[in-house]
Amino acid sequence: MDYAHQIAETLLDLNAVIVRPDHPFRWASGLLSPIYCDNRILISSVEGRALVQKAFQEKMKALNWQPNVIAGTATAGIPHAAWLAWLLELPMVYVRSAEKKHGQGKRIEGQLPIEARAVIVEDLISTGGSSLSTLEALLAENAQVLGILAIFEYGLPKAQQAFAQAHIAYASLTNLAVLAETLANRGALTGDQRAALENWRQDPVAWSEKRESAR
């Protein structure tokens, strides 16, 4: 089943994607982006989130990942990790971006099994920073991490390089190329906009700097 296009269609149907190269969005890092993909909207769609969970299951089966715990990345990965863990009848934990400043100062919430084999669940991969931070937290607790699953990835070279350096496998259900193709097929993406998306994907720093200088 072609989950990549189905999920791209679902994201568009839910108005979760905005393409705006002329008025780009600013990330927390300061970089500008011609696209905004709000996967959080999926949690409000019964059909959408069911599709994601089915696709996650099929992806793990194809990759032969057999975890004994599902780890959600806070915060957007938590609901999808919880639904996946429930479907697989597995324990679930979630990993904070930083240790709590109060209480027990935990970073991992929940309880890892002995000899944990975890799959990390993300909603979106951009530069890969949050995924790798989650990976480090799990490895620090002596967990084995089989891989990282995400709903969507931009396909940025920086993320690909970072995962390769960390020697961690990852997979996404859909990506920017499929999303752009789907938008174009709907007549909702011009040639110039598609070129802008690809130019940004190849080098988001240079694209951002060019837009900043033009302001």
**Structural domain count:** 1
Low-confidence stretches: none
Strand arrangement within the widest β-sheet reads: 7-6-5-8-9-10
CATH class: Alpha Beta
Distance between the termini: 44 Å
Total number of beta strands = 10
SS class:
alpha/beta
State the share of residues found in helices, binned by percent.
40-55%
- Figure out the total of helices: 8
CATH domain fold name: Rossmann fold
How are the SSEs ordered, and which strands pair?
Blueprint: H1 3-13, E1 17-19, E2 25-26, E3 32-33, E4 35-37, H2 46-63, E5 69-73, H3 78-88, E6 92-95, E7 108-109, E8 117-125, H4 129-140, E9 144-153, H5 157-166, E10 170-175, H6 176-185, H7 191-202, H8 204-214
Parallel strand pairs: 5-6, 5-8, 8-9, 9-10
Antiparallel strand pairs: 1-4, 2-3, 6-7
Helix pairs in contact: 1-2, 1-6, 2-3, 6-7, 7-8
Structural overview:
With 215 residues, this protein is of the alpha/beta class. It has a single domain (3-214), classed as 3-Layer(aba) Sandwich (Rossmann fold). Helices cover 44% and strands 21% of the residues. The chain contains 8 helices and 10 strands. The protein has helices spanning 3-13, 46-63, 78-88, 129-140, 157-166, 176-185, 191-202, 204-214, and strands at residues 17-19, 25-26, 32-33, 35-37, 69-73, 92-95, 108-109, 117-125, 144-153, 170-175. It has a 6-stranded mixed β-sheet with strand order 7-6-5-8-9-10, sandwiched between helices. A two-stranded antiparallel sheet has the order 1-4. Strands 2-3 form a two-stranded antiparallel sheet. Strand 5, helix 3 and strand 6 form a beta-alpha-beta unit. Helix 6 packs antiparallel against helix 7 (191-202) and helix 7 packs across helix 8 (204-214). The longest helix is centred in the N-terminal third of the chain and has 18 residues, at 46-63. The relative contact order is 0.16.
